[in-house]
Amino acid sequence: MLYLVSTPIGNLEDITLRALNTLFLVEIVLCEDTRKTFNLLNHYKKPEQSLPKLISYFEENELKRIPEVILELKKGTEIALVTNSGTPTISDPGFKLVRGCWKGNIKVISIPGPSSPIAALASSGLPTDKFLFLGFPPNKSGQRIKLFENVKSSLESLSSTIIFFESPFRIQKSLEDLKEVFGDIEIVVCRELTKIYEETESKKISEFLEKFEIKQPKGEFVILFNHKN
Fold first, then answer.
1. Are 125 and 203 in contact (CB under 8 A)?
2. Residues 95/125, Cβ–Cβ less than 8 Å
3. What is the pLDDT of residues 78-117, one digit of tens each?
4. Ranges for the Tetrapyrrole methylase domain (predicted)?
5. Cα–Cα distance between 153 and 169 in angstroms, integer?
6. Contact, 220 vs 192, CB < 8 A?
7. In this predicted structure, what is the pLDDT of residue 228?
8. What angle do CA 165, 167, 169 make, to 5 degrees?
9. Where are the strands (E) in the chain, listed by range?
10. Is the predicted pLDDT of residue 198 greater than 90, yes or no?
11. b/e per residue, 191-220, with b = 16+ CB within 10 A?
């Protein structure tokens, strides 16, 4: 059986009891970064508990790992998959492994928990009944603009709140492209969710661009908007 275990997106106290029980129950934990997972497990480890075997599983070695993992699962080994933060497969490794499990008739169980898109949406003040999550937009400006144009076209018939991730290195360029397609609309920008320097602000795109010109953006960003609200 494969368990998809959600882990904290910043604050270690956000992990669930079920997630901890699962991680100390399984024989193997597949980790995007074994060091981060070791620190998390070691933080909660009780004296009588032993750590599971930690195996690296990230985007670059995913295709190589999948046959090995499927073989272990078919032997009856219980395995958990975690990423550096949040829910596995959501803009993180795991989708291809889950698909392989379905093809191999291997049971997959999701252990829900922290999710930055949902946390950002809940506190954004934007409509929550329908939303579209874009993950990370493409690196190239032309491809980003095309994506935003397709989103704008789809919103003509479906009013949804749009959510996407961005890094501190690309957020200014992404916001410039967003402004080109949607105009100078009001957006919500969440930074470093659940961490010490967490911020959630609502401003026009131009105001965020001015802010980032003065103060270099740092941390991980979630951007949300609903151009009809």
1. no
2. no
3. 999 999 999 999 999 999 999 999 999 999 999 999 999 9
4. 1-207
5. 28
6. yes
7. 75
8. 150
9. 2-5, 28-31, 53-56, 79-82, 108-111, 131-133, 161-166, 186-191, 199-204, 221-225
10. yes
11. bbbbeeeeebeeeebeebbeeeeeeebebb
Q: Which of 225, 106, 219 is nearest to 155 (CA)?
A: 225
Q: In this structure, what token pair is assigned to residue 106?
A: 């291997």
For the chain, percent of residues with pLDDT exceeding 70: 100
* Nearest-10 crossing angle of helices 171-182, 141-154: 40
SS3 110: strand
End-to-end Cα separation, the chain, in angstroms: 44
The alpha-carbon radius of gyration of the chain (Å, integer) is: 19
CA trace torsion 21, 22, 24, 27 (10° rounding): 160
Residue owning tokens 């661009």:
209
Segment 14-69, tens digit of pLDDT: 999 999 999 999 999 999 999 999 999 999 999 999 999 999 999 999 999 999 99
Domains and CATH numbers, the chain: 2-111 (3.40.1010.10), 116-225 (3.30.950.10)
Residue 148's pLDDT is 97
